[in-house]
Amino acid sequence: MKYLLMICILCWNLTGIAVAAPEKSVVLELLEGRHWKLDAESFQLLGDDTDNVLIEIAGDTASINYLRFRALEALSLFPSENTAVFLEQTADKSFAALARRGFEALNNGFSKTEPDRVKKLAERLLQHRNAQVRISAARAVRSLDAVRFESFLKAEKDSWVRKEAQK
Amino acid sequence: MKIKLFLCRTAFFLLSASLFAVSGCSKKETSTATTSSSDNSTPTFAVSEINQTLEDGYYTGSFVVPSDGVSFILSVFKDNNGSTAFYTLIDPDGTDLLNSSSTPTLSGVSSGSLGAYGYANILVPQSPSFSVKAGTWSFKAYSNDRVKLALRSGTAPTSATIVVQPYITGTTWAADDLSATLSVMSSIYSENGIILSVNSTITISDSQFAAVSGTFTDPTTSALVTQGSTAAVNLFFIEDYSGSWSGILGNAAGIPGSMGIANAWNGVLNSLSAHASGTTLDAQLLGETAAHEMGHQLGLFHTTEQSGTEFDIINDTAECPKSSRDNDSNGQMTAEECEGYGAENVMFWTAWSSTSRSAGKKQETLSSYQQQVLKYSPLAK
Predict the structure, then answer these.
(1) Omega of the bond leading into B321 within 30 degrees of 0 (cis)
(2) pLDDT in the model for residue B37
(3) What are the pLDDT digits (tens) for B261-271?
């Protein structure tokens, strides 16, 4: 009887998990559109487990990039540890366009709650070979560490990058 | 009866109020007139600056449309991206096209009516409901630095050729990588009665243009788009968007954008990286996006907007209303929900989903009236 009860509780929990995670197709629908912008309310209505679906989409190397880009942006709405780790890895190991968005999502989602974590990643990305990644990192550092931002400006060789970083 | 677009009604109201306040206290003065000629190979297309006189707080001016006038775009400019707009545009019969009670009207439709920062315009005809009547047209405008007219004259068009100038930025892709995309775009227009004459792609190697903002008043974007040809629709295939534009496939400088005048609104942006899987470009989707943004640049609106409650001003385009087609009641009209109700149109607000595209769904049609707007375009020949 005791084991039967435990099995029932386990099944109940699994059912709960299944219900809480939105269907991938539902999430994908929110990522479509030619002129897309993040609809925070619609994503948040999908529930906390949406981050796992977004991570699956953003990490799908076979998928078209605009869906991956948007999934990354939407992940900033779900600031879990799982999300932070994924965004850090994306920023560190992906091609430039994805890396920049990974960092920007981390910055948008975690700069208030975990500024040191954001700053640590930004510091690394200030050395990135892609100018747009450096610009994003520099803009984040500017609000987190003014001294470090000034040293970046002195070291950055491209004048237009310095100018963009200060926008 | 189509519902007209009132996308920025509140913003327009605020802009109008501020513009009125600014313009209402000036004394009478006249701007300096200059006239610029168009490309000599297109003698039926001419650009000129119009003299303005400041009267009763408005900048006023007039121009004459000849008996063989086909179309025109009237543009107002405000330096340093200040706000500007037209207050009236009166045709030779005395009808104000910007008055909401006129039939037809461009009130709440054209950027020249709604107001914009740095640049706004009025295209006539923006639908077959309008005609370019011969005679003297007059306008009143809010505070501005110049008004220019791009006028096309000649015989009424039954076909059209539009010159397209592609540009590519960044280092991930090269001009050759665009050939399939440009072929898709040309085919879409050709199937709809519009011949595109596509020039060789120009590579812009300056690294600052690899990724730019989708805001055309942004200094970097402005510096890029201002390089566009005055004799073509300029398509800028940028490697990526920067900043908050990260999720966008493409955008045009206006509906319509500028035509025939070198400025920051003389082109459209299409993101290459957004259309790639890895580094492999989706030529069909990118071709559809380029065709879509070019449609905006030449004056076509979305046939159905995202909400399913706003539609274009063209009477023969299919509508996909939320009231009957929003199957999942989420307030967003997908292409799948609108199949047979306009999702196949180049100017539908969104592309087919990845799943549908994989199944062969395409957006390649333009209605007869949409085609007519393009055939009458000031830039068409």
Answers:
(1) no
(2) 42
(3) 999 999 999 99
